[in-house]
Amino acid sequence: MCLAIPAQIVALLPDAMATVDLGGVRKDISVVLVDGLAVGDYVILHTGFALSRLDPEEALRTLELFAEMGTLAEAQRELAGP
Amino acid sequence: MKFVDEFRDHALAKTLAAKIRAEVRPETRYHVMEFCGGHTHAIFRYGIQDLLPANVRLIHGPGCPVCVLPVGRIDDAVALARDHGVILCTYGDMLRVPGSKRVSLLKAKAEGADVRMVYSSLDALKIARDNPDRQVVFFAIGFETTTPPTAVALQQARAADLKNFTVFCNHVLTPSAIANILESPEVRRLGTLPLDGFVGPAHVSAVIGSRPYEFFAEEYERPVVIAGFEPLDVMQAVLMLVRQLNEGRAEVENEYSRVVTREGNIKAQALVAEVFELRRTFEWRGLGLVPYSALAIKEAFAAWDAERRFAVPARSVPDNKACECGAILRGLKTPRDCKVFGTACTPENPLGSCMVSSEGACAAYYTYGRFRDAG
Ligand code: SF4
Fold it and tell me: Please, which residues have CB within 8 angstroms of residue B136's CB and are 6 or more apart in sequence?
């Protein structure tokens, strides 16, 4: 019920609608709740509506945080020796 | 899928688990409630509890809209479909929730009522446009994520002066439910509710922002970390909560910064404020009457309010006696404490609402085989 998924805008349509791509599947959704969207933007899609934007840079930053932790853990293991 | 798969990486999950294990203090208790059904689902689906040390326990809160809708409102919806001959439209999960005498909307449909599943509030609007000689009621439920779409449907209905479309509004508010759990006399009296922090909702927060949780952090001195719904998001949130608890901090932190801001979606908030107002009180399944915890349709939209058009009675119907959903939603019990779990109550034939949706604790326990639980 609360699940919502990232979708990429592939075309803007009249009446605050847009076509999105969901991993290969296309769907028309309402973008009336989010202003200023452009083709290529990512949104969070929920019950046929874009609820908000997804910021790719922030996503990357979060992923980098995980990755850093990975290298850190490795470094610690190495320091601890075999 | 982009922005999904990266947050499910197995190796990184292991790293995060190792990090959590390294940072927890064995003598400390870290009991955190995930408020949102989306998190409950992810936790069970990916077996996250199994990756955590024993003193880090996840408690499944009342964040599933299907699970918290009281029996009386389901009976009202069934009555609308049966007695008023309307086309009743609602989201799929609602269809199987049992009302009184185990009558669900699906059962009413089998008996001839015109009940239809919709994916979006706009689909309900379309059904009304396509059936001008029938009354169409959209049975609207959900937290702050589904409320703006309902507001849009109401506005469009008014703009088009649609005479055969109304909304049966059952939208509820997340912050009031969290407050209710923290203040519940039962929880206080038993003193056993081990709540040290919260994993804050993902998409609810996309709409309302992270700001509303600042009150909890300050007032109740509980840390809140808003997290996305993917397994790595949940693990990272647990790590952030562990750190806050270790350092004696109680702050609102945002793990889900790719979607959630402090302000949230202002346009959606304005729309909701235009169409809805607070109800003085609303019944929640398992939590009872919760003050200022739900929304009603404003006077300006009265013509599209199903409660007014069909004079819906505000009935209150007690839950099935055997069902422990109430205590489970408060974090006081787990599904295995329920005598009818997996026997009289299964996802195919649910007795209580927690067994209906995959975001409910009982259904998650059942589906993913978690019969044991690190108590
Ligand atoms: S198993 Fe069924 S009856 Fe028992 S608490 Fe869960 S939903 Fe209620």
Answer: B86, B87, B89, B124, B127, B128, B164, B165, B166
Query: Does B341 sit in the ligand 1 pocket, CB within 6 Å?
Result: yes
Beta bridge pairs of residue B87: B136
- The stretches in chain B having pLDDT less than 70 are 185-193, 370-375
Looking at residue B191, its pLDDT comes to 52
| 3-state SS record for B146-193 | CHHHHHHHHHHHHHCCCCCEEEEEEEECHHHHHHHHHHCHHHHHHCCC
For A27, the token pair is: 């769907």
Q: Please give the sequence-ordered ranges of beta strands (E in DSSP) within chain B, or none if there are none.
A: 30-36, 56-63, 87-90, 115-117, 136-142, 165-171, 197-200, 224-226, 252-254, 276-278, 281-284, 288-291, 295-297
Pairing of strands A42-46, A49-54: antiparallel
Strand arrangement, sheet containing B115-117? B115-117, B87-90, B136-142, B165-171
**What's the pLDDT band for A68 if we cut at 50, 70, 90?**
confident
d(CA B149, CA B155): 10
Is this prediction's ipTM beyond 0.85? yes
- Ligand 1 binding pocket includes B110 (Cβ within 6 Å): no
Q: How far apart are CA B31 and CA B43, in angstroms?
A: 14
Q: Could you tell me how far CA A51 lies from the centroid of its own chain? A: 12
User: Which ligand 1 atom lies nearest to the CA of residue B339?
Assistant: 4
Minimal-distance CA residue to ligand 1 atom 5: B324
Q: Tell me, yes or no, if the pTM score tops 0.95.
A: no
Here the tokens at position B229 are 């719904």
